[in-house]
Every structure is written in C-alpha cells, then in structure tokens.
Specification:
Elements (H helix, E strand, L loop, with lengths): L1 E6 L8 E6 L8 E10 L1 H8 L15 E8 L16 E4 L2 E2 L6 H4 L11 E2 L17 E4 L5 E3 L6 H7 L2 H12 L6 E5 L3 H12 L4 E6 L2 H9 L4 E4 L6 H10 L6 E6 L5 H8 L1 E9 L13 H6 L4 E4 L5 H18 L5 E5 L4 H9 L5 E4 L6
Parallel strand pairs: 10-11, 10-13, 11-12, 13-14, 14-15, 16-17
Antiparallel strand pairs: 1-2, 3-4, 3-8, 3-17, 4-5, 5-9, 6-7
Helix pairs in contact: 1-11, 4-5, 4-10
Bound molecules: zinc ion (ZN) (2 copies).
C-alpha cells in the first residue's frame, strides 16, 4: 500500500507531494492514520533553511495526532495501559536517543544526545513516514504514544500544538508564585500557552505584548488582564512604561520572552523587577546579537535569567492532562483559525509566515 505525503525537498524549494510505501510496524512501534498535524513557525524556519543539521528532504509536521491502525505486537503507554487500534493518540516526537553515549550516561542530558532525531525536523524522508504532513505516520519502537484523554478533541489538542508543552516548560522554568504579575512578550502559540499556564500557576495578573491584533484578541479570550499592541505602541520605552505603570514602578515578577526577536530580551529585562525571573524561550533560531548592560540588567537587578530549550515527555504528558481538565475555560480548539488539506501545504506556510493565522492545522481531507 502507498500513501501520499508532503515533502520539503530543501530550503526555499517548492513543496512536493510524494508517494510512500506503508510498512508494517516494527515490534514496539505502530502505524497511525493521521488526523491532524500542525503548521507552525518552525516549519517556516525549516523552509527558509534557518535550522542547522536538517537532513532534507523531510516530511514536515512534528506535533501530530492520529488513530492507531496497527501496532507491532503489544505496546503500552507510560502508565502500562495497552495502546490499541482505533485509539486517538499523540506522541512525543523524538526518537533515536541512544542511552549509551557521554551525553546520555555521564551528563544525563538525553536532549543533547547526538543521535536524537525529531519527527518532521531532523528525520529524513528517506527513512519513511516520520512527519505529520502525510496520510500515515510511522511510530518507531520506543516512541511514546499518549492517548488523548476524554474531553480533549484532536482539534483542541492541536490548538495548543507544540506551543502547549513548550509554554508549559517555560512556565515551569519561571517558578511562578501565587499572586505574581507576569509579562509575556510575544503572542504566537508559545506566548499564548505561556499566558494560559501562568494563570493556572497562580499568577494574579498576566500581560501579553505582541501583534497582530487577531493574536491579541485571542490572548484577551484566554482571560489575560491586559494586552499591548506592538503596532500601536512602537517605542520600547513606552512598552516598558506600560509594565512599570501597572506594577507601582517596580516591574513584573516574571517576564517570559516568546517573541523570537533578540531586541525583546533587553526590553524584557527593563520590564523585570529587582530579583525577578526572566525566561527566554522564543529564540529558537539564531536571529542575531544584542547589547545589554550587565550592571543594570543583571547584576544590580539581581535577576535570574533562564533559557528553555524544547520540551521533554514530562511536559507533553502534563500539558495534555491540564488541557483536558481546562479546555472548557481556555478553549484551545478556538485558537485554530484555519484548516488546510495536504495539497494546500504551500499556502499554509505562506499564511503562517505573514502571521495571517493564530494556529493552523493540516491533515488529509481538510481544506477549502
Ligand atoms: Zn546518546
Ligand atoms: Zn511546532
């Protein structure tokens, strides 16, 4: 049997539809019938060639969900329950961590294992259906599948997409205390999910600074306390004043950078109170350098500055559980502003690049 998949042949080259054989799952693996995959900023970066070490051609689509068609013998979730055909699942999109190299055994940092691969990003199309922009997805042995709980539809889960576990991880890093005031710089999916999980972590107030307007309206819909439109408030010092005016001149307890703009880091540190915590999660690609003042921004401010790279299975697992519990309040499904068929992948990338959508999903049988 053959199915079709969208292939990104290389940076800035047009997407192609190619036919792939569907192989029987390896022992411990599975085959999924794709329900939804996502189109996110990472896919735009991939198409521009801005990530190092990508083995083009690839099938894009890292966070996805699908129905189990077949498993290679008995397969279980982390709680020991069997994964069975017909189940709606997502999966932690990483494979290949070797467990036997210096990074795995000595540094105990599997996310830096040189053999680590990510579906839709560092998985070559030559190795098969290892991306979500396809009719089927091959789950390799050892890849952790996670059934979507009752109360969390495929659409709601994908409304969070990779932004949900990434935003969850950033908020875990931030260590929010009950009653904190939190500023989120950036209103893309990572910023919006950080704003959600900041509220669930007990922040008293959450402010979102970003653009365009549709994304700020989405932030308002999530119950944040104030939004600031970068298109209307164009001077950094006015944006810093916006935060300081609302915090008795002190600055915010926590600032989360989810914008991707290096200049936001200096601006965000100016928004931070003394002894506050600053998390950088938006600088996924190298967008350049900035100059900061180590005395004023870091040392005298007694600032804690934390990076946040990707996420682990733990973040996906807990984010999914929280999404199922709180979908009625935050309505992640409502963040999906457009659905694309596999034959509309090029349009989906173009729309994502010009920020015409809040969250875009792609899947077989969708589209106009
Ligand atoms: Zn390793
Ligand atoms: Zn993504």
């Amino acid at each position: 049997m053959h199915v079709s998949a969208v292939v990104m042949p290389g940076p800035r080259r047009p997407l192609e539809s190619r036919s792939f054989p569907v192989r029987a799952p390896e022992p411990g693996g599975a085959v999924l019938e794709t329900v939804l995959s996502e189109v996110c900023g990472t896919d735009v970066h991939l198409h521009h060639g801005r990530l190092a070490g990508v083995p083009y051609p690839i099938i894009p689509g890292h966070v996805s969900c699908g129905r189990v068609l077949e498993t290679g013998g008995p397969v279980h979730d982390v709680e020991g329950r069997p994964i069975v055909p017909g189940q709606l699942v997502t999966f932690y999109d990483v494979y290949g961590i070797c467990g036997s190299c210096w990074h795995c055994l000595v540094a105990k940092s599997g996310t830096r294992c040189p053999r680590r691969r990510v579906y839709g990003i560092t998985a070559p199309a030559a190795d098969g259906l290892l991306g979500g922009w396809a009719e089927r997805i091959a789950i390799k042995p050892g890849v952790r599948m996670l059934p979507l709980p009752d109360g969390l539809s495929a659409e709601a889960f994908m409304g969070g997409g990779c932004g949900a576990p990434t935003g969850f991880h950033a908020i875990e890093r931030a260590g929010i205390a009950l009653g904190d005031t939190v500023v989120v710089q950036g209103s893309g999916p990572v910023g919006l999910n950080a704003a959600i999980f900041a509220q669930l972590s007990g922040a008293e107030r959450v402010f979102v600074i970003g653009a365009p307007r549709a994304r700020l309206e989405a932030a308002r819909g999530l119950g944040v306390d104030a939004v600031l439109d970068l298109a209307e408030c164009t001077r950094p010092e006015d944006r810093v004043a916006f935060v300081r005016e609302r915090t008795a001149g002190r600055g915010a307890d926590v600032v989360v950078e989810a914008s991707g703009n290096p200049a936001a880091v200096v601006e965000g540190l100016e928004m931070l109170r003394d002894a506050g915590r600053y998390v950088v999660v938006g600088q996924y690609t190298d967008a350049g350098d900035v100059t900061l003042n180590p005395h004023r921004h870091v040392n005298r401010r007694h600032a804690t500055i934390l990076g946040c790279w990707g996420y682990e299975y733990s973040h996906l697992h807990r984010a999914v559980a929280m999404m199922a519990k709180h979908e009625a309040r935050f309505h992640w499904a409502g963040l999906v502003t457009r659905r694309y068929g596999l034959d509309e992948a090029g349009q989906a990338l173009a729309d994502m690049e010009r920020l015409a959508v809040v969250k875009a999903v792609i899947g077989p049988g969708l589209g106009e």
